[in-house]
Amino acid sequence: MPERYDDWGNPIRASNHEPIEYSFRGLAKPLARTFREYRAMILWAIVALGLYLFWGSGEPRAPPIDWKQFAYVQYATDDHNMCNSFMVFEALHRLGSKAERVLMYPEEWNRASSDERNVQLLHIAERSYKVKLKPVRLINDSGRAKPGSLNFPSSWDTTINKLRAFELDEYDRVLHIDSGVTLRQHLDELFTLPKVQMAMPRAYWHDAPPGQQQLTSRIMLLEPNQAEFKNFVDILNSWKLNPDFKLRRHYDMQLVNHRFGGSAMVLPHRPYILSTSEFRRENHDAYLGVHYGPQGHLPARMKWDAVRAVEEAKLIYFDDEPLPKPWIMWPLDGLAEIQPSCGGSHLTCPERKVWKELYDDFRKRRRSLCSILSAPAPIWRQIQNKTETPYYVN
């Protein structure tokens, strides 16, 4: 091969290396063979790296929730609130609640009972709804109390038994709900709130100035402590030493406000509790939370709408005193006087329609689940001016 020269006259030496494209061709075969041999390991390494980058480099994940440390609790003192509690547990089961369920009931029901219905409901609750049964000694403001029955229900002075929820110290937190309710959604998310001894909503339906409403014991998220229940009994006994003291219905609410009014976490009443009395009101500022708020154009959530109020509520509480609770028939003259007025119109309105539907739904489920009829209607003129009407345990 003749010798070649560059433009400057210097001889060009022949290279001992192949052009680069030919070098890569030579490497391709061994690389392909290596990839085939270790393909599975390489793919797993890529997947592991991707998972690490996706999860490992972010915020640490919260530990899984141990739902066995939390429980909903109900108490029963007679046939009526036994059925009501059963309805609450059925709703929790149907709505997919993950927390445990506990029913405190009179220890007398463990013995031979003429009322087989309560015993049957206890067995169904335990078997079908995974309810843990806890017999207790009932008390009232005077000491030992006996359970009521279908025809002779318990009076409101036995409501102190709801505070026995503090005795359930096998749990980190328990949630007590009064049983005279319609539960539309479970409340499991409350168990994950920051730790606090007590959390309750405000009794927004009471006619008190804004910011001065008491907390309501209809929903109580609490940390059990057996000493607390004894303390409540001691407080009540000390009050009774005052000759001017008069025991009133909802004295359980007085007790928890006396003890926790200055330290409890305040739960928002929207969406956690809606009173049926709201549908009879002309002014909804307390429910809407618009006291002293801006005037003029407001978002839809700050305007009253009866249908939307029900749809957003997780819990409906029946409270239309002196009209009886939904497990008691309405006196017709009382219904005409107490039902939502619809602005004085003889026609219906959303408030009246929703209000009646809530009562009808409760009674329908009560008949279906408990096979129990409503109690007879009281005579209206005997209760219309009273606030402490019968059958008002819950």
Automatic annotation (TrEMBL):
<feature type="transmembrane region" description="Helical">
    <location>
        <begin position="38"/>
        <end position="55"/>
    </location>
</feature>
<keyword id="KW-1133">Transmembrane helix</keyword>
<keyword id="KW-0812">Transmembrane</keyword>
<dbReference type="InterPro" id="IPR050587">
    <property type="entry name" value="GNT1/Glycosyltrans_8"/>
</dbReference>
<dbReference type="InterPro" id="IPR029044">
    <property type="entry name" value="Nucleotide-diphossugar_trans"/>
</dbReference>
<keyword id="KW-0472">Membrane</keyword>
<protein>
    <submittedName>
        <fullName>Glycosyltransferase family 8 protein</fullName>
    </submittedName>
</protein>
